[in-house]
Design goal:
By secondary structure, the chain is an all-beta fold. It contains no helices and eleven strands. Helix content is 0%, strand content 53%. A hairpin with a 4-residue loop joins strand 7 and strand 8.
């Protein structure tokens, strides 16, 4: 059974940091490009960062460039999102997504809440 479980969300003050984790099970991470999305209340879900399945090629939304870093540990079947210099506008539910490089099939995690507030 394919499963993605996010963790690491929480409440943090502006300027603070959080590290999100996405643990995958039921499939091999090396066959999937991995992404982090977020959805704020009343807004559409948006792509935050993406990392290719076998390489270190990454892409970021302009709003998080220089502050967020996506990484993956294929041996641990886990993807990370290091978030620094957090802003109130980063407040959202953050979702992990796995996309099969060959079929395009995508799987989503259940999301983890990140709240940036003083």
């Amino acid at each position: 059974q394919v499963q993605l479980v996010e963790s690491g969300g929480g409440l943090v003050q502006p300027g603070g940091s959080l590290r999100l984790s996405c643990a995958a099970s039921g499939f091999t991470l090396t066959s999937y490009d991995m992404s982090w999305y977020r959805q704020a209340p009343g807004k559409e879900r948006e792509l935050v960062a993406r990392i290719a399945r076998l390489s270190s090629i990454t892409n970021y939304a302009d709003s998080v460039k220089g502050r967020f870093t996506i990484s993956r540990d294929n041996a641990k079947n886990t993807v990370y999102l290091q978030m620094n210099s957090l802003k109130p506008e980063d407040t959202a539910v953050y979702y992990c997504k796995a996309t099969n490089w060959y079929t395009g099939t995508g799987y989503w995690g259940q999301g983890t809440q990140v709240t940036v507030s003083s």
